[in-house]
Amino acid sequence: MVMLSVSDAEYKRRIERLRKILTKRRLDALYLTNGTSMFYLTGYSFISTERPAALIVPVDGNITFLGPRLEKDHVPLETRMVQEVKTYFDYPGEKHPIEHFANFLRDMGLGNRRVGIDNRLGVAGMWGYQGPPVSKKLPEAKFVDASNLVPQMRVVKSAEEIELMRESCRWANLSISLLQEYSGDGLWDAAVALEATYEATITMKKTLGLDYQPKRVVYPINAGFRGQIGEMSAIPHSMSTKRMMKRGDIIVAEVAVDVGGYSCELERTMIIGEPSSKQKRYFEVMTAAQDAAFEALRPGIKCSEIDRATINVFKKAGLTHFVEHHTGHGLGLEGHEPPWLDIGNDEPLETGMIVSCEPGLYEVGFGGFRHSDTILITKDGKEQMTYYPRNLEDLIIT
């Protein structure tokens, strides 16, 4: 049976682990405003707006959601981990939400306790929010910075998280094959993306069944190009392009797929028609750099050494001036998360970490070349979880 979400047992293990950390730090509770951290601990995901929301995890007592009334009926539909919901009507309201939060914390017996907090304001501060920090409304409490507590818990993945990422990789493979199949001369990348995404999404739902639903996004599959077509492929974080695809274009296709809130990353550089000698050279150097990273990836190696391995390939080819970013980053609940495969990060890789591997070359006015694969660090080395072809011959669109 395919796993589609994290089990309640795993959420309980996470909460138990968190409470042990809080006890060790002599904290009475954790106050979270980050939606990803809330999801990690409870499986509850919501749309962050200007309306303040928080999750309170006490060492002893009920896990409690604080937020706008419009979330009150939503919480029990999504999670059994949240035991109590305290709400206010709306923002800014006759009584400011932070005034409500201060009173809620007093009611929970935390009004004069040591509380770890991931954001000293006490609210995510989205969409024009204005208001005092919670510490001003609850001066008798001691708020302690705990912004890195849950993110650090997320770095090494559990067996359940790894299985969800495997399933994400399977559907990414189908999605990128459809992007390649539907691309061609005279087509707009936005329309191709919609067609491929639609077919992959319908197939995924039919295969996984009625129990499948995306957990962290509105649509389960995000497949497309983000405008990285032709000369615009040289802009690594391009967003769109107005022109159509044409023969001779370099295109960078990318896919993310939500399974249980987790997503892999899969990207491929493709070429429409016969590639030029310069395109072939840049493509080969890019894949050689990725191969060098693959060879280096293993537990215990410093993240900086992975980045250095790709830099050395680019340096040998005389192309370092076309490098725009580091080799990769962590993956899981967010598209970018620690660890960073960067020359400045000497953190060692650990078994169970999942990272992207995506060294790239970008010459403005010519094009960009980047593959990205999702890599699991194993006790014996690494596992390439995405498996779409990487060689140029298989990525030419005729």
Distance between the termini: 39 Å
CATH architecture of the largest domain: Alpha-Beta Complex
Radius of gyration: 23 Å
Helical proportion, percent range: 25-40%
CATH class of the largest domain equals Alpha Beta
Beta-strand segment tally: 17
Class from helix and strand fractions: alpha/beta
Please mark out the parts with pLDDT under 50 across 5 or more consecutive residues, or reply none: none
How would you characterize the largest beta sheet?
A: 6 strands, mixed
The share of residues in extended strands comes to 15-25%
Distinct helical segment count? 10
Structure commentary:
The chain is an alpha/beta fold and 398 residues long. The chain is built from ten helices and 17 strands. The protein has two domains: 8-153, Creatinase/prolidase N-terminal domain (Creatine Amidinohydrolase, Chain A, domain 1), CATH 3.40.350.10; 155-397, Alpha-Beta Complex (Creatine Amidinohydrolase), CATH 3.90.230.10. The chain has helices at 8-24, 35-42, 75-78, 97-107, 134-137, 149-154, 159-182, 189-208, 277-296, 303-316, and strands at 29-32, 54-58, 64-68, 84-88, 114-117, 142-145, 221-224, 250-257, 266-272, 328-330, 337-341, 354-357, 360-363, 367-370, 373-378, 381-384, 396-397. It has a six-stranded mixed sheet. Strand 15 (373-378) and strand 16 (381-384) form a beta hairpin. Helix 9 (277-296) runs antiparallel to helix 10 (303-316). The two termini are 39 Å apart. The mean pLDDT is 96.
